[in-house]
């Protein structure tokens, strides 16, 4: 009966093929090339190196590595769910990017009845994909591949609507995606796992642990994410000194969180040893905590402090908050996304708000109104003409004060969390439908249910059992 209930032979291919037909039809009807990819705009006078691909493609490939290798390896830490962690990441990411091109195209790049596709659109779609993959971490091992695709199908539009509202109506600064990526993904994922709560997993699961090999693979994912995180944080900043600062701050924040993670892991372990889960996750906290202020003049010292603070919050969250949420609040956060993306995202947003409040022309010069574009004078203000003489191409702003911009940042935080949580709860109720083939409790965190596995796939478990028997004898 369980096999019949979770068998995907018909329903999974049916969903995929129907989705592909719909996506092809929508691409044919609405998607075309942007000016930088359209042959009609290529002439003998065009300098190839001026094409946007040379500016944007390196960042695109860096984020590709993070999504497919970084996330993929990182999620392979369960000893019997390595296939699921890596392959379902691959599957979900590919589908989410295809879908995000259409959905974000409608909300952000809709001109003349067409979606104009270029590399920058792919980068934006990758950010939407990263949101889905972070949320995926909350339900890792407890969902079928069909549930994951449906989750991506629903999450991407909710994210796109939230992004549209926050950027076009609240008009905020969020270069590193602390609000729109980390907080949104976290609370969407928590909303889903709250609805999909499994009481029998409150005290853990026999297969919910790692092996020597799976931990090494997961650390490889951490290293991929660590190395390429500066590209992620700086991708959408202004080219030049803003992007330069974003790279510096991200590296410093990551370095600080890494060193602090090793120290805290040893301190909080009763045997004074390093815990691999801390290396895999907590070391990355600095990349999140500098995100909201990554392109601002916060100083290298502040970036270092943010890395330390983020690491500390993330570490304490894993040790104390996650067990409490699982037992008392029905939130079984499998990968601890609330610690790495939620707590650190809130710290990052607080730092970004403070950086906005203290930003002035003495520190930034005229570029203050380029970095904080909504603080630029309105079109009728004589001050705008003077600024445009110093910064050619500067666009009119909204004339906001620092305090007004900070209040809009606060509003964006609460809006993103609220919309994400609501979207996650509604998505969770959809995923509970029997048709989507949720695995039974005893088959969670086990590749046998959805994969043809090699005969020795559970050899780490067998070796450990043999060693325990020898020790007890």
Automatic annotation (TrEMBL):
Residues 25-433 form the Ammonium transporter AmtB-like domain. GO terms for biological process: ammonium homeostasis. One of its GO terms (cellular component) is plasma membrane. It holds the Pfam family Ammonium_transp. One of its GO terms (molecular function) is ammonium channel activity. It is a multi-pass membrane protein. Keywords: Ammonia transport, Cell membrane, Glycoprotein, Membrane, Transmembrane, Transmembrane helix, Transport. InterPro entries: Ammonium/urea_transptr, NH4_transpt_AmtB-like_dom, RhesusRHD. Functions as an ammonia transporter. May play a role in the elimination of ammonia in the gill. Belongs to the ammonium transporter (TC 2.A.49) family. Rh subfamily. This is Ammonium transporter AmtB-like domain-containing protein. It comes from Oryzias javanicus. The lineage of its organism: Eukaryota, Metazoa, Chordata, Craniata, Vertebrata.
